Amino acid sequence: MNWSDIVGLGLFASGLQLAMPTALAAVGEAFSERAGVLNLGLEGMMLGGALAAFAADYHSGSAAVGVLAGVGVGVLLGALKAFLSVTLKTEQVINGIVLVIFVQGVTAFAYERLFGSAGTQPEIPALQTVRVPGLASVPWVGPVVFEQNVLFYVSLALVPAVWLLLQRTSFGLAVRAVGESPAAADSVAVRVDLVRWLALLVCGAMAGFAGAVLVIGDVTLFGTNVTAGRGWVAVALVIFGRWNPLIVFGGALLFGITDALQLRIQAASGGSNSAVPFEVFQALPYVLTLAVMVLATVAQRRSAQPAALGIPFRKEVIE
Amino acid sequence: MKPPVVAMRGIVKRFEGVTALDGVDFELRGGEIHGLLGENGAGKTTLMNVLYGLQEPEAGTIEVDGRPVRLRSSQDAIAHGIGMVHQHFMLVPTLTVAENMLLGERGGLLVRRRRLRAAAERIRERAERYGLEVNPDARVWQLSVGEQQRVEILRALYRDARVLILDEPTASLTPPETEQLLPRLRALADEGAAIVFITHHLEEVLAWTDRITVLRHGKLVETVRPQETSAVALARSMVGRDVTLKELGVEVSTADETGHAPTSDAPLLAVRGLECRGDLGVTALHGVEFALYGGEIVAIAGVEGNGQAELEEVLCGLRPPTAGTVAIAGRDVTHEPTAARLARGLGIVPSDRYRRGVIRALPVAENLVFDRIGELPFGTPFRVRRKAVASRARELVDRFSIRVSRLDQLAGTLSGGNAQRIVLARALSRGVRLLLAAQPTRGLDVGGMEFVWARLDEARRAGVGILLVSTDLDEVMALADRCCVLYRGRIVASWSRRELDRERIGLAMGGVVEAPGRPAGAGEVLTRR
Amino acid sequence: MTAAETGFVLPGVSRRGAQARTLLVSAAGVVLAFLVGGLLVLVAGGRPVAAFRSMFSGTLGSGFAIGELLVTAAPLLLIGLGLALAFRGRVYNIGAEGQLFVGALAGGTVALELGGPGPLLIALAMVAGIAGGALWASVVGVLRARFRVNEVISSLLMNYVGIFGFDYVVRKPLGDPAAGNALASRQLPDETMLPSIPHLFAHVGIFVALGAVPVVWYAMRVTPFGFRVRMMGLNPEATQVAGVDTRRLIVVLMAVSGGLAGLAGVIQVVGVEGRMDGGISASYGFTAIVVALLGRLTAPGVLAAALLIAFLNVGGQAMSVDNGLPYSIVLAIEGVFVLFVLIADRFARAAR
Q1: What tens digit of pLDDT does each residue of C106-120 get?
Q2: What ipTM is given for this predicted complex?
Q3: Engineered SS bond to B365: which of B402, B407, B451, C84, CB 3.0-4.6 Å?
Q4: What subunits make at least 3 CB pairs under 8 angstroms with A?
Q5: How many Cα atoms within 13 Å fall on the side-chain side of residue B415?
Q6: H-helix or E-strand containing B270?
């Protein structure tokens, strides 16, 4: 096994690419949780976004159209989640699981209907790598960060944008307030349910975009299991990142690099005949997520969890 | 003559058939402090919620500066210069003071640094003018209760409120903080503001207001000047019958002068060196020590937010202590679950009765026995005996005069007083030796309060040791055989019945312990009198 | 309001109106499911009537078809019962799929590796399967009870770990050398297979699943244990103050639901596949969530829902074969169905 092949700059470049969909979804989830809505439908939103992006890209031949379609479906699913959680106030854990089951069923059917089940698997063209002039020649960082495809750069720009939205705008202020103390926000005429609706649309857009980035920017294929639990991992990363979008994003990137590492070790160690079974590597990201989530939960002294997370807001008469 | 700033006429408001306000008139002039009195449920808060746009009345008119207005949201009210400070503060604890001020303000999507700084500047300016100093960059959860209230008042002023509604502003303040607040309100009124002051402290009303309006059962009883009335007369209008002041808890002493002698030799509850962390990770209890014997009531007095909630949770087994021990009837239960404590004879009346005392979605009958559902006669490990549950429930409903229509009525539909009777009935009917009663009369009306106090007294006479955690000075004075004061997580003072003094307790609640007042030495409290 | 907050039907309390509404919603859901199904068949270019005909004949048309229906319903029923119990206590175990595989692995290994008389081995395998699933799920329970780790995410992540573990064991140590690197263990000896029911083409394991229905019903509705579970689901803090060891109860609920999933896994091995391979579960662990929710977290409801979902799954296969329609129609129907019931239930409650 050649370790310099495994732990090279390529590792980081592919790790970042691998991590991006999960990272985007996690940032979206952090946003919705800061508004007090636990979105366990994230996996479904990513999957829905992925199929829409794939189909639109395949038929139009344009990645941009694909991305728009992915984001659009994500927003729609965000609206569905908001309807269930905020308008109807059904239990958020349950409606999240139901949303995933719903999307899994519908995408399975839609994919078969659109592409048929037999024959060769349809594929969309991979995006070209865009070297950022100047920056790409910066040693170490250049090849890792600045030799990626367009979607990567868009993603990279989107994360601080979401952070700014949360930390530096009136809307973000309202989001933070309704997640922590909806009654207080309501008393100063912040429309709690509206803010939560909008936060879920943002989350849906991010998750749909994450799905688009996954299929258009990375795998170029679609399968009903293409998201492979990334949505769930993203929810766990929000806990790890203490509900701060930037830390959540950083955590997701670290996570992606470890994922890339295991893939490379797995490839280098000879697949099914290696001494270490490849299942160990396959399970590794999930074990790692679990461990990280447990550690983060145990380690935090002051809970960073938004106080109203998961609790629907009902205006109560104060008497 | 200038029209009154606010004139409410014939206001009617109903909740699911119950008439909360029945044609109430209310008038407010600039420059006055207007006291609003009434029992719990008399409609004080509802009337003010109507004025603040939180509830729309079914009938009646509201005029501001002589012009009729419709207040459909708090935003409408704010636009008309009406501000309200709720009894439970409406601040977001994780945001800064300045961010709380900006919240809900229209104009500009971006919250730029400049806007925050401008807000902070404006806060400082107002704060200085009215003597309400507070740091605009502090996070609200780091502030004391008194400071948070200042933030609330400042927020109303920040929005140029000319009408300021204060819902029981002194309820959660220490006496020194109260003494600070009231002159400031006077100063505000002198500048022309109209202030509504909701309270049930008769003395405060008499001393600090210009006019007093009394409500009873949603109806206006009278509007008088303080010079024209007295505490006894006000109390009579509030309750609608002649009451002794004792009932109102103004000056009460149900315990006799020397207090009750404990009936057990060994302590039923011994707490030593107890420390724990609060929700935000800050140490909430520091070396708390006391002991409790059978047949006595020991009160833990103090203003809310000084560790009472955490103490209650540690004693119940809901919050792990970081140091120290808790022993019940001689056995160390520090690390034992709630069940083991209950088995040692602990009974619990939790401070938050809807969160921890009753299960709203279960029927009254089951709520009355749910802590013993697997024990005989209510059941075996394999079967719940419904008949035994129902017959015990019937008995308890009678004994504790719980007003229910049917035994299968859901507990969530009961009034606070009846819910508390369920909690009390359950706790006292299981052979308790030690009762933890946390804020047992909070939010109850006079009748409910009397009932609870009588039951606690009865249990004491029967030899039960009672730990009374209370923020209500009247309650402490009425019941306690001994009293400790909890301030910032420490027991700063403790007295026996003979030494109990309203003023001294009040000062200690604010952290002021007089030199001769004995500090809470560990050995001191643990030894028997 | 959440299902748990409003309270489910309480023992001894007459809630006829609520029950009637629940039944009405379920019936409307079934009708809607078929309407949506018909629509999807049209979209896929098929004829709804023909499609439904083959669905019915594929599930009820012959002894073989009925057997297939019951055999498919069995794991859904077992897992669904456990999940209904856990969900009642607001312990959201969504790791049943992994628990099924771990249980199958434990039980299958016993059946494959231990010698002895067949019936005894089968019994031992079932015990091992229950223990395997229960232990696997308990990890999640302990994490939640001790450290407040969100059980939804941890149980979901444990699925992957459990399934990859299963894959490894059946590929390597217990793998069939003849099958190369296929993900399948060696074949079980015949005597460790569950006997079939004559004329029905179904193994006797379906009786185990059916037998679990009254047991779970009794536990939930009659015993103090069931009462405590309901209490915890309605108000965990009050339950704790009432002296119930809620931490233990959380672990117990995880273990019971995991154990039932493990049992389902063993039954799939010794009743259907005859070896350990991926075919033991068609996502039963996930579909059972649908079953538990559609069954309104009651034992009889879960029985009905398991049969209905099994009908859709088995019938869907027949439809797919007969009419050349995509099987995924069934998945879409189930998704729409469960979403509809969630929404309709909410409105039925609001109508009170």
Answers
A1: 999 999 988 788 889
A2: 0.88
A3: B407
A4: B, C
A5: 16
A6: strand B269-277
The tokens describing A205, both together, are 């857009």
Order of strands, edge to edge, in the sheet holding B82-85?
Answer: B82-85, B163-167, B194-198, B33-37, B211-216, B219-224
CA-nearest residue to A191 within chain B is B104
A/B interface, count of CB pairs below 8 Å: 87
Q: What is the 3-state secondary structure (H, E, C) of B106-140?
A: CCCCECCHHHHHHHHHHHHHHHHHHCCCCCCCCEH
Torsion over CA: B81, B82, B84, B90 (sign): negative
Phi-psi region of C201 (alpha: psi -120 to 50; beta: other; left: phi over 0): left
| Chain A positions in Cβ-Cβ contact with residue B93 (cut-off 8 Å) | 180-181, 307
Lowest mean pLDDT among B277-281, B419-423, C269-273, C282-286: B277-281
Of A168, A184, A190, the CB nearest to B91: A184
Q: Which of C10, C224, C240 sits opposite B373 (nearest CB)?
A: C224
Residue B375: how many other CB atoms lie within 10 Å? 13
Domains, chain B, in order of start with CATH, read 4-239 (3.40.50.300), 255-353+431-525 (3.40.50.300), 359-413 (no CATH)
Say yes or no for a CB contact (<8 Å) between C247 and B337. Answer: yes
Summarize pLDDT for A97-112 with one digit per residue, the tens: 999 999 999 999 999 8
Contact C165 A239 (CB under 8 A): no
Name which of B388, B444, B44 is nearest B212 in CA terms: B44
Please report which helix (H) or strand (E) contains residue C283, including its range. Answer: none
A-C Cβ pairs (cutoff 8 Å, strict): 135
Contact yes or no for C289 and A101 at CB 8 A: yes
Chain A hits for C154, Cβ within 8 Å: 290, 293-294
Q: d(Cα B370, Cα B363) in Å, to the nearest integer?
A: 10
CB contact under 8 A, B93 and A180: yes
The predicted-structure confidence for C207-256, as pLDDT tens digits, reads as follows 999 999 999 999 999 999 999 999 999 999 999 999 999 999 999 999 99
Continuous H helices in B145-292: 145-158, 175-190, 202-208, 231-239, 245-248
Q: Which residue of B has its CA nearest to A168?
A: B111
* CA pair distance C45, B514, nearest whole angstrom: 89
Contacts of B156 (CB under 8 A, 6+ apart): B83, B84, B85, B164
- Phi-psi category of residue C159: left, alpha or beta, with phi > 0 → left and psi -120 to 50 → alpha: alpha
Interface contact C152-A108, CB threshold 8 A = no
The residues near C121 (Cβ < 8 Å, ≥ 6 apart) are: C110, C111, C114, C115, C191, C192
Nearest to B306 by CA among B470, B490, B59: B490
Give start and end residues of each alpha helix (H) in chain A.
Answer: 3-6, 9-34, 42-60, 63-82, 92-115, 141-145, 150-168, 170-180, 182-187, 192-214, 230-240, 245-268, 278-299
Strand residues in B333-449 grouped as ranges (E): 346-349, 379-380, 383-384, 434-438
Please state the pTM of the whole predicted model.
0.85
CATH of domain A3-299: 1.10.3470
Alpha carbon dihedral A276, A282, A288, A290, in 10-degree steps, equals -130
Residue in B341, B348, B382 closest to C223 by CB: B382
In Å, how far is B473's CA from the nearest CA of chain A? Answer: 22
User: How many angstroms away from the CA of B379 is the closest CA of chain C?
Assistant: 7
**Phi and psi at residue B18, in whole multiples of 5°?**
-90, 130
DSSP states of B379-413: EETTEE-HHHHHHHHHHHHHHTT---S-TTSBGGG
* Closest CA of chain C from B472, distance in Å: 24
Q: Higher-confidence residue: C161 or C116? A: C161
In CATH terms, is domain C63-322 a member of 1.10.1060? no
User: Where in chain C are the domains?
Assistant: 13-46+325-352, 63-322
